[in-house]
Amino acid sequence: MNIMLMSASMKACCVLPPCVWYTPFVFVDDILFLRPLEVIIMKYLNRWISVTPKLEHVFVPVCEQTYTWYLMVVDVKRATVYCLDVTRAPGYKERGERNMQTILLMLAQIFKLDMNLKSFVHVSTDPTT
User: Fold this and answer.
1) What is the value of pTM for the model shown?
2) Listed residue (63, 74, 65, 57) closest to 25, CA to CA
3) E strand or H helix at 7, and its extent?
4) Which of 62, 52, 56, 76 is nearest to 24 (CA)?
5) Domains within the chain, CATH numbers bracketed
6) Strands 20-22 and 57-63: what pairing?
7) For the residues 89-95, what does the mean pLDDT come to?
8) What is the distance between the alpha carbons of residues 43 and 54, in angstroms, rounded to a whole number?
9) Sequence-distant (≥ 6) Cβ neighbours of residue 69 within 8 angstroms
10) Please, what sign has the CA dihedral across residues 86, 89, 91, 95?
11) CA distance 126 to 129
């Protein structure tokens, strides 16, 4: 709700929106349930993921089936992913990393489809290179 109010306020003041994507938590559900890319784009591209050549951050709240919440932050300019979480449950780390990899793969496909590509520094995901 606060995001919608902020957006409406900025439109009323003719201020450019921030170069940030805030996705709803159901965005992750669609990705983890392996919905087709076309469905995700149709559902989120215009409302939550606006086209911008100056994207800086992507905030993705994640709610797992065990009702564990964490925030995944993609720093586009530094090509870095952060996971803000306080959970220390056994077996959680592997599941969380696997889910974040799946989310990042879908985000990469979305980034390749539109004008946002200019915002990204292309780096290898292989740490040995």
Assistant:
1) 0.70
2) 63
3) helix 2-12
4) 62
5) 18-116 (3.30.310.130)
6) parallel
7) 75
8) 22
9) 61, 62, 63, 85
10) negative
11) 6
Largest CA distance in the chain: 49
State pLDDT tens for residues 32-55.
898 998 898 888 877 777 777 778
DSSP 74-115: EETTTTEEEEE-----TTHHHHHHHHHHHHHHHHHHHHHHSG
3-state secondary structure of 19: coil
Taking residue 58's Cβ as centre, other Cβ atoms within 10 Å add up to: 22
pLDDT category of residue 73 using cuts at 50, 70 and 90: very high
